Amino acid sequence: MKKVRLVVHLETNGAPASPAAKWRELARSFPELELVRVATQEELERALPEADIAAAWSFPARFYERAPHLRAVITPSAGNESTPPDPSGRVPVIHATFHGILMSETLLALMLFFNRQLRRLLENQAARRWERDYLHASRQLRGQHVLILGYGNIGRRCARLLKGFDCTITGMKRSPRDSRLDVDADAIITYSHLPAALASADHVVLILPGGAETERIITRDHFRAMKRSAYLYNLGRGNCYSEEDLVWALESDLIAGAGLDVFETEPLPPSSRLWELPNVVVLPHASALYPGFMDLFFEELSSRLRELLAADAPV
Question: Which domains does the chain have, with CATH numbers?
Fold first, then answer.
């Protein structure tokens, strides 16, 4: 019986390593697979004519026509910038859904950093200054309103964690509320209702995808609509507002601060004003980078392979 050929290219610059032991375990779990690991994009392209399934961080659109037998592309990425859809619609792309497990903790850390005024605490420690009174002005998450723009898999996971702190959650998405999935949201809104929701939010979380539909979707009017005590977090993509507008809002004290993981240009240029603003925390597009990243990917990869192989099994 001919084996199903899985071609893998996951060793790229800046990506978490995929341990050899995990691949050996995967091969033992799926004896019907022929596992082919390649080291470069060029080797991936050469292997595609005989590939049945591909696992890769990056899979350019031109690759699909090189792979006549391809059943699916599986990627650890949550976005489609590096792994766009098949132009012909023939081959499905299976994006990872586990990122919210990791990114929700990053979001929580940023919220607590601002709420508890930890930057001032660190400054006091560096200056050996004992100061307690300012902490009376710190804030609890309990009872705060969190507005999550882009309420998909990652947004829902963030909401689940924050509900444990008794936050009020509003999610913004294009589709109506799904009672099976959106159980942690107190309300679901669409973009047209965004200004009213911004007026009451203590934390505004952007987990929007990239692309033309979200290009500059957040404007200066939206920053004006926010509470001056509110914080902005961007864990999605850097195209959803002009960074010049964000700097303007921060320097004008229209918002209290921002925790940013994604930017218009990455790496963030040294000349960017965002580096030096005291009410900004800059992360290097790393909100999902934890030691367990690849473990979670292998769990999901195994599940997806099981589904794909079961679909082809004889009845």
Answer: 4-95+291-312 (3.40.50.720), 99-282 (3.40.50.720)
Question: Do residues 4 and 53 touch, judged by C-beta distance below 8 A?
Answer: yes
The whole-model pTM stands at 0.94
Three-class DSSP labels, 119-187? HHHHHHHHCCCCCCHHHHHCCCCCCCEEEEECCCHHHHHHHHHHHCCCCEEEEECCCCCCCCCCCCCCE
Give yes or no for a contact between 170 and 196, defined as CB atoms under 8 angstroms apart. no
CA atoms of 88 and 210, how far apart (whole Å): 21
Which tens digit of pLDDT belongs to each residue from 90-137? 999 999 999 999 999 999 999 999 999 999 999 999 999 999 999 999
User: What is the β-pairing status of strands 187-189 and 93-95?
Assistant: unpaired
Compute how many other C-beta atoms are within 10 angstroms of the C-beta atom of residue 44: 25
Q: How far is CA 74 from the centre of its chain?
A: 17
Summarised one tens digit per residue, pLDDT across range 42-59 is 999 999 999 999 999 999
Owner of token pair 């006549």: 68
